[in-house]
Amino acid sequence: MKVIIVEDYEQMSKQAGEIVLDVVKKNPNAVLGFATGTSPIGLYDYLVKANKNGEVSFANVKTVNLDEYAGISATNENSYAYFMKKYLFDRIDIDNKNTNLPNGMAKDRQGECDRYNALLDEMKQDIQVLGIGSNGHIGFNEPGTSFNSTTHIVDLTESTIKDNSRLFEDVSQVPLQAFSMGIKNIMNAKQIVLVASGKNKAQAVKGLIKGEITEELPASILQLHPPPHFCLFWYSSYSKRKEHNLI
Ligand code: F6R
Q1: Which listed residue (68, 126, 142, 215) is catalytic?
Q2: Cα angle at 140 between 38 and 208, to 5 degrees?
Q3: 99 alpha carbon to ligand 1 midpoint, in Å?
Q4: Which DSSP state fits 227?
Q5: Which tens digit of pLDDT belongs to each residue from 166-187?
């Protein structure tokens, strides 16, 4: 695993963006795995810039996203489909029919997991972008999720519902379930680039880099991902990083 500790969020976004751009430049038909959340927004801005200045085209890439809430539609502002359009897809020359997320409105939720798994078997990610939760989750794979998991339905924990309620009008509107790629689908990616920023991620990043490989810290499995695999991390001062034994 290559760990890159950077000075600020902008550096993290630029360097992670370069890694993704490199994949697309080498293979304009690449399959790109994307994540939502605050961590990759700068990375997406970087891809938008490169597209607008003509450095790269996304016209032939295909995308797969990690997860989606169950029970809300793609037009709902809190859906991950909406997030991806807002921060990336509507700002680049991608063909919308090449973008894939679990369908939050699927009536047959297990059937939707099966469909998504079949799609992922067919379209292996050339690169997967990941964020990480402060408890080490990746996608919606919370501590305790099997390393063998494939796309599945997740019952959101009370703490996740509470955390995510800041984005909804009311906590009662937060969906109770979500679809998530499993750990196995994530590990199938040919390359992984994980972006983490801020103090609240320090312990999770430490576990990811040098902790025990355990289902209690889902991201720790990434230690077994064959290279190239990058973790980009920024967290305040050198002394703080030292304090957390990160360097
Ligand atoms: C979202 C996802 C989540 C986030 C994680 C970190 O698609 O996969 O695992 O990456 O919750 O979120 P942020 O970046 O908002 O701290």
Answers
A1: 142
A2: 75
A3: 19
A4: S
A5: 888 889 999 999 999 999 999 9
